[in-house]
Design goal:
The chain has about 90 residues and is mainly alpha-helical. The protein has one domain. The chain contains two helices and two strands.
Length: about 90
């Protein structure tokens, strides 16, 4: 019988990264937007709480995706190097 393919995305470092980024996503979507109502000053004629809810959360989510892509790429490269070292050793 052949061995089932392993999923490197379930490596503990990858799972920890996913947990941290998911926590940040929850904080951004619920926490920051909820407490932004208390910011009652305007920037360029727009209330700051409106800007944070409409634009700031979207920018934070884009940043989360970029961080995930960069870190996972580095983890995959490191895993390939470790696999090559084990294969040649």
């Amino acid at each position: 019988m052949s061995e089932p393919a392993t999923n490197d995305n379930n490596e503990p470092r990858a799972l920890a990264l996913k947990a941290v980024l998911l926590s940040v996503m929850v904080l951004v979507s619920f926490g920051v937007c909820f407490f932004a109502r208390e910011l009652n000053f305007a920037v360029f004629g727009w209330p700051v709480h409106f800007w944070i809810a409409a634009q700031g959360a979207v920018l934070a989510f884009i940043a989360i995706v970029v961080v995930y892509a960069v870190v996972m790429t580095r983890l995959e490269i490191q895993a390939e190097r470790d696999e090559d070292e084990v294969g040649h050793g």
